[in-house]
Prior knowledge:
It is built from 4 helices and 8 strands, in the order βαβαββαββββα. The chain is an alpha/beta fold. The chain has one domain (2-41, 81-163): Rossmann fold, CATH 3.40.50. The strands form 2 sheets. It has a 6-stranded parallel beta sheet, covered by helices on one side. α1 packs across α4. The longest helix has 14 residues, at 14-27. The chain is globular, with a radius of gyration of 18 Å. The termini are close together. The model has no long low-confidence stretch (mean pLDDT 92).
Amino acid sequence: MKIWGVTGWKNAGKTGLVERLVVEFTRRGLTVATIKHAHAGFDIDHPGTDSARHRAAGAREVLISSGRRWAIMHELGEDEAEPTLDDLLSRLSPADLVLVEGFKTADHPKIEAHRAATGHPLIAPGNPTIRAIAADSALDTGPCPRLDLDDTAGIADFIARELGL
């Protein structure tokens, strides 16, 4: 599996870019998986559902399955560390490309999404894993190529070249 990341500060356009890249790469015939880093305390379950009741009762893992999809929720114990990106990648089914949102400090290659309106500085100068910057405005990106944040096909072309897809 080839792995590419999209990183950036909050409201920089990461999720929208990942969503558009999934559409673009699947249109090109690739199978795509995604991993999204979330803040602690996120939940995909709803109070009162059977699966939430199983978790509340103390189940370490709950697998929900239907004719359309399945999901596993794994509860981290008090002594259990957050899984690394490599741990999470090992749990995915094979895909041509895994797009990773977040995980700023992990070792995979990334594009930094940057919107001028956020007022945040670039992450790239201190992070050698950032290979390009997708921005909505002109800015000094140093040695990193600057790509237009709205040019999904151009960004996909860059990733495809870098990964040999």
